[in-house]
């Protein structure tokens, strides 16, 4: 016991030791001190104003100003994006800008941009109107010129088909159109304009219904696309001319045009006036094009000058807002003109924090220094593991299940090896492993370039787990060499096979089998097992027994880690009444099964282990017969069975009764002392855990222990069975590889046609890449994840802690990305 306590600590085995500190900061040094602490990123502030709303805090006005500046910067960013310009990614060399000066500068830039945008929109709207007017003049003039010929050519045919209207006008539109003479003298009027092409059909139908068919609707598509001022997209439009009669019809048509967003333009009937107006419109369009071009260049120049400093300004505003948000978490003491803050920091960071606070005092020319001292805390400290680029992904796998309790044994230490290894047991193929290795090495080689880019969700996940993928591929190559599978094909890598045919013809190789003539194959599975009549039974037996051995070993490791947790937290009750009976129960049954597997492998016995384990429970005193693997096996089985039966009440009963006894002894005759201390604690530390001390409830403790014991007993069986997924997925991966190789590649290669061979090779490559390398990889990854989260971590890992989240400018930048 003492030897274990004196062992040196592992960096990742337990979280960093934390300390609760208090800061008393003069007002003049507060901003600079918090800024320096944000650059350091090793202090997690505690919110001392959580009972106040955001609008009741001290620095609410500064936060509002920073939020307003952030809005302006987002506006600039959107404008730069719409203009198709690129903002500078690299920070520019610019002298330090004061927040007030930056605020004024941003307001000036915003006012200038808004004014330029307003002028540009007005000019663009005028340009669009003139362009539409020009198009309407060109297209509608054709209908007006052809009106007279229409009157004479079509009039006689329509004389007998007059449609009488209920409107006050006595003659219908078609009847008026057939009368001789100009349109003005006959009372025929027209409205010309332009409308988006997508609305033409509905527009025409609405006009027809409103006028009861008393109109002539002519349309022609516009040659040029026109920019929509709202969406800044080019829209296809259609020119229309509506001939009608009567003032009431005109009112209806104009209202419908307004409702559909159609722009109406007056077109004179006189050709001379049309030509004159068209020339005037063309000259104005040319002037507007020049003016718009100059305005866009001036606007782009202003946006470019903003874009050079945009990244720097956004970073500065984010930092300032984060500083004031943090200052709002501190308690403002008006009488002493200081801010009081509390928080957590790692013990190793205390000198760095003190040095940063001293710099803040010196740089702010404060006459009073910042007081930094350690305090006692009742609540549990946050959990902080120092990781690097290699171990971070494995720590994230564990944290996805739950954050470790403070100073609890960290499963990530073992997950670094066990996770990729259990993955490889299910994915074992050194050909597929090499493919994964190439992908992992590409990600690692381009690590610096990819880390600075914005990746998609899938690619970001793949890049984050590049070192997990590296170890998974290496272990897959190792397990593939043991299974002797290269895209499901065995090779004589480590020498010749230990088996040969019975005769030269090898006719009975797959019926009667082979003959062993030399020592066993030196490494992994003998390639001669491939295709033999006993291949599947042999590999099934091997992988199933291997899965049980790995499972029992990992579950024992989990129980051992619970022992180290109990030692670390000085919890002798858990050692005597939880660790010991759990080890006895698990190893009396499944540890004994693992021992039988190893003995059977070493001795070559033909004993039936199913029979041994079943009749160990049904008839433990019967003679084992040919299933006896070693001398004294029957009395050992009886002893182990009795030990397992004793372990269950050992786990269940003693601990709750001992806890009740300890509780009654601890608080016997001390009721007044407890009352007095609780009153003091409630006044002094309103957020502490002391005021939440609950009365000891024996029934709750007993039920909890009973649930825990039943869960472990049933879980020992179900968890051991769950590790058989290693065998099942390994078998599935191997059989799928064999099917694709034999039924696709070899089948296609049997034809002399080069096209069939290419098709077969393509199908094989597609199946290997998308089914075996993507779907099977994901499947094996998820199953390995489940084995670690459920079967391994539930033996020792509470996972009810909370993560250390220090105030850090780097974390703010990462969250924004």
Automatic annotation (TrEMBL):
Coiled-coil ranges from the UniProt annotation: 99-126
- In what way does this protein cross or attach to the membrane? Multi-pass membrane protein
Localization terms from the record:
Membrane
* Annotated GO biological process: vacuolar acidification
Regions crossing the membrane? 421-444, 465-483, 546-567, 579-599, 636-653, 754-775
State the protein's purpose.
Essential component of the vacuolar proton pump (V-ATPase), a multimeric enzyme that catalyzes the translocation of protons across the membranes. Required for assembly and activity of the V-ATPase.
| Stated family | Belongs to the V-ATPase 116 kDa subunit family.
Q: What is this protein called?
A: V-type proton ATPase subunit a
Q: Which organism is it from?
A: Deinandra increscens subsp. villosa
């Amino acid at each position: 016991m003492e030897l274990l306590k004196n062992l040196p600590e592992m960096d990742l085995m337990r979280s960093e030791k934390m300390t609760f500190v208090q800061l008393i900061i003069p007002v003049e040094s507060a901003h600079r001190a918090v800024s320096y602490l944000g650059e350091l990123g090793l202090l997690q502030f505690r919110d001392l104003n959580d009972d106040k709303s955001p609008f009741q805090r001290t620095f609410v006005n500064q936060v509002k100003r920073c939020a307003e500046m952030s809005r302006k910067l987002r506006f600039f960013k959107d404008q730069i994006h719409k203009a198709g310009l690129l903002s500078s990614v690299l920070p520019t060399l610019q002298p330090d800008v004061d927040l007030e000066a930056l605020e004024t500068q941003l307001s000036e830039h915003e006012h200038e941009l808004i004014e330029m945008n307003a002028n540009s929109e007005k000019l663009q709207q005028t340009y669009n109107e003139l362009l539409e007017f020009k198009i309407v003049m060109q297209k509608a003039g054709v209908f007006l010129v052809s009106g007279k010929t229409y009157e004479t050519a079509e009039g006689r045919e329509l004389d007998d088909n007059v449609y009488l209207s209920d409107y006050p006008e006595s003659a219908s539109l078609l009847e008026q159109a057939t009368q001789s003479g100009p349109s003005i003298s006959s009372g025929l009027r027209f409205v010309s304009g332009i409308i988006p092409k997508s609305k033409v059909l509905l527009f025409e139908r609405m006009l027809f219904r409103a006028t009861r068919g008393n109109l002539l609707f002519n349309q022609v598509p516009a040659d040029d696309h026109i920019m929509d001022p709202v969406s800044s997209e080019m829209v296809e439009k259609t020119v229309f001319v509506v001939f009608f009669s009567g003032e009431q019809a005109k009112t209806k048509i104009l209202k419908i045009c307004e409702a559909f967003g159609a722009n109406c333009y007056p077109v004179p009937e006189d050709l001379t006036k049309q030509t004159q107006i068209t020339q005037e419109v063309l000259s104005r369009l040319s002037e507007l094009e020049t003016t718009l071009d100059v305005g866009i260049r001036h606007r782009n120049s202003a946006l470019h000058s903003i874009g050079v400093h945009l990244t720097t300004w956004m970073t500065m505003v984010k930092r300032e807002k984060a500083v004031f948000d943090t200052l709002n978490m501190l308690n403002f003491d008006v009488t002493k003109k200081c801010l009081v803050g509390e928080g957590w920091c790692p013990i190793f960071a205390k000198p760095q924090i003190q040095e940063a606070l001293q710099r803040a005092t010196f740089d702010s020319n404060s006459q009073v220094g910042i007081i930094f001292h350690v305090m006692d805390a009742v609540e549990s400290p946050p959990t902080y593991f120092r990781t690097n680029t290699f171990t971070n992904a494995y720590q994230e796998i564990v944290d996805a299940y739950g954050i470790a309790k403070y100073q609890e044994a960290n499963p990530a230490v073992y997950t670094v090896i066990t996770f990729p290894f259990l993955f490889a047991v299910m994915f074992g193929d050194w050909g597929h492993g090499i493919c994964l290795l190439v992908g992992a090495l590409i990600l690692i080689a381009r690590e610096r370039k990819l880390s600075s880019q914005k990746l998609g969700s899938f690619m970001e996940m793949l890049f984050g787990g590049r070192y997990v993928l590296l170890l998974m591929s290496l272990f897959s190559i190792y397990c593939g060499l043991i299974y002797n599978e290269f895209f499901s094909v065995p090779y004589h890598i480590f020498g010749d096979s230990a088996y040969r045919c019975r005769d030269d013809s090898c006719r009975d190789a797959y019926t009667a089998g082979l003959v062993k003539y030399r020592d066993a194959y030196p490494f992994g599975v003998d390639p001669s097992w491939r295709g033999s009549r006993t291949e599947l039974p042999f590999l099934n037996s091997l992988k199933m027994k291997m899965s049980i051995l790995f499972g029992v070993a990992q579950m024992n490791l989990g129980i051992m880690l619970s022992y180290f947790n109990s030692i670390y937290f000085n919890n002798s009750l858990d050692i005597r009444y939880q660790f010991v009976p759990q080890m006895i129960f698990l190893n009396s049954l499944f540890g004994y099964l693992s021992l039988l597997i190893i003995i059977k492998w070493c001795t070559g016995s033909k004993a039936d282990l199913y029979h041994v384990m079943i009749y160990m429970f049904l008839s433990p005193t019967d003679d084992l017969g040919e299933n006896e693997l070693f001398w004294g096996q029957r009395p050992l089985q009886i002893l182990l069975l009795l030990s397992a039966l004793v372990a269950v009440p050992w786990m269940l009963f003693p601990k709750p009764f001992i806890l009740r006894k300890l509780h009654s002894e601890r608080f016997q005759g001390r009721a007044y002392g407890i009352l007095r201390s609780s009153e003091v604690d409630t006044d002094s530390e309103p957020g502490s855990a002391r005021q939440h001390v609950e009365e000891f409830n024996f029934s709750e403790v007993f039920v909890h222990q009973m649930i825990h014991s039943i869960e472990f007993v049933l879980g020992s069986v179900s968890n051991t069975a769950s590790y058989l997924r290693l065998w099942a997925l390994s078998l599935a991966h191997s059989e799928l590889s064999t099917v694709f190789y034999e039924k696709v590649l070899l089948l296609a290669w049997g034809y002399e046609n080069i096209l069939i061979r290419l098709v077969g090779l393509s199908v094989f490559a597609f199946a290997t890449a998308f089914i075996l390398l993507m779907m099977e990889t994901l499947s094996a990854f998820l199953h390995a994840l489940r084995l670690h989260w459920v079967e391994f971590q539930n033996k020792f890992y509470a996972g009810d802690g909370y993560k250390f989240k220090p105030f850090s400018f780097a974390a703010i930048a990462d969250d924004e990305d």
